[in-house]
């Protein structure tokens, strides 16, 4: 459980860093997620909660890499005419809406960042 929470808090930290480093970048909503861990509904919902963004989970999330390779091979072979055509083939199995208020999400992030700072001090260099 703690591993799932940490992964989600890192996702939020990455979104925050992108917003800081690239102020003109607009992180669109919904955010699309894939991969094995995204199959866990708790994980997907917590990403929505902590990020404050609508989340869409790709159908067959553990096969996205292979599917992407197949799409681009097909694009190269002329099966599909454009990336837009491929994009229209995307399927999502579920959406997750934020249900945590922003103040609570910010408090969780603050607590997590303090825990990371404290953990970093455990290492004693000799």
Tell me the name of the CATH class: Alpha Beta
- What CATH architecture do you see? 2-Layer Sandwich
Summed up, the helix count is 5
SSE ordering: HEHEHHEH
Radius of gyration: 18 Å
Biggest sheet descriptor = 3 strands, mixed
3D architecture notes:
By secondary structure, the protein is mostly helical. It has one domain (2-120): ATPase, nucleotide binding domain (Nucleotidyltransferase, domain 5, 2-Layer Sandwich). Helix content is 55%, strand content 10%. It has a 3-stranded mixed beta sheet. α2 links the parallel β1 (31-33) and β2 (55-58). α1 packs parallel to α2 (41-51). The longest helix is centred in the N-terminal third of the chain and has 20 residues, at 2-21. It is elongated and about 60 Å long.
Considering the chains and any ligands shown, give keywords for the structure.
mainly alpha; Nucleotidyltransferase, domain 5; 3 strands; 55% helix; elongated
